[in-house]
TrEMBL record:
The chain crosses the membrane at residues 12-33, 39-64, 85-106, 126-144, 151-172, 192-217, 224-242, 281-308, 345-367, 379-399. NCBIfam families: araaP. It is a multi-pass membrane protein. One of its GO terms (cellular component) is plasma membrane. Pfam families: Trp_Tyr_perm. Keywords: Amino-acid transport, Cell inner membrane, Cell membrane, Membrane, Transmembrane, Transmembrane helix, Transport. It comes from the Bacteria. Its main location: membrane. This is Aromatic amino acid permease. The keyword Transport applies. Belongs to the amino acid/polyamine transporter 2 family. Mtr/TnaB/TyrP permease subfamily.
Amino acid sequence: METTLVRRQPSVWWGAMIICGTVVGAGMFTLPIVMAGAWFGWALLLLGISWGAMLLSGLLFMGVSLHYPAGAGFDTLTKDLLGRGWAVINGLSILFVLGILTYAYISASGPVYQQSLQQLGLPFSNAGAKIALTLCVAIVVWLGTKGVSRLMTFCVLAKILLLIVLFGGLLTQISVPSLFSVAPPGERYWPYALGVLPFCLASFGYHGNITGLVSYYERNQQHITRALVLGTLMSLALYLFWITSTMGNLPRAAFPGIIGQGGDIAALLAALREHLHVSALALMMSVFSHFAVIASFLGVTAGLFDFIADRLGWGSSPLARFKTACLTFLPPLLASLFWPHGFVAAIGFAGLFATLWAVIVPALLAWRAQQRFSDHPRVTLAIVLVLIFGGLNILAWGLSWLNVLPTFGTA
């Protein structure tokens, strides 16, 4: 009697952890600050809209991917469906965004990890800490999606636990009237809303990981869909927890002072300190930031790795993955060592390019795939909504760049 061994599908949980870990990083702490002008009601609406639109764009890209062999990524799909010109533009956009983010993570994290290692008695230099951090992440990414998902799960669970321990008490003392306060005389909240939209888009960036998930789940559409939905929903829940905790304890009038002090995590924590009843706050925040950085660093570089592997077509042998890992990690590492602050000048454009490859291109790919693979091609509502969302983000970015939109907390 002949028996057939069926390989068991990995749990949806692992994929969801990759998505949530990639999406929710240390940048989460800046959300209440950038949203302070629009305030809580608009923040809820914009986060909900951005979550829905970014989930739709991810599902559109996944649907197109399922028409191709496992491992086919943005470059293969764009070249086949939209042509070589679009593939070049989209490829440069992906390399720019993911490369800049990798460069930023290495540059910004090196001093933090250097200090932590020195506290453990390990005399690492700044450059040594950057190299050690990059090497550790590169090894995990080289091992594949399974290794990334396991480490990501540990980091995400640690982040959630620390977040609850650090800030859970804030939920018990929120001021509902403050959350839903009306604008003071002569002022409106809505003019600040459009400028918040690109930050919301950037807060749900995970599209570089979809190619890896398609291979990981062996093109099982149900599992991939559930992983995307669960991962992005968890991210949305964490964001809502955070903005409710902060805006419910700090009035809107307190945020110009926070912005005036630099608008960073330290300024926000200083304003919240009287509401927090946590011993060793600085230590726990340091631990939280370590887990947040590692998780997002893993997610971003895994997406960059998959794109380069698809673009060059080197295969998935250990040697081929080693060469891909070198191209993924060495250029950002070298740039960080020789130009540690150069990413600041370029990262402002990352949102514009992210709109192109994570919103516009997935919608266009889905439209062309409908024409090629469907007997009844049509422009679906999902495609239209995603394109409208992308257009609004480009408009918001352009108006902000031209200093047309109002900026809260600045004279």
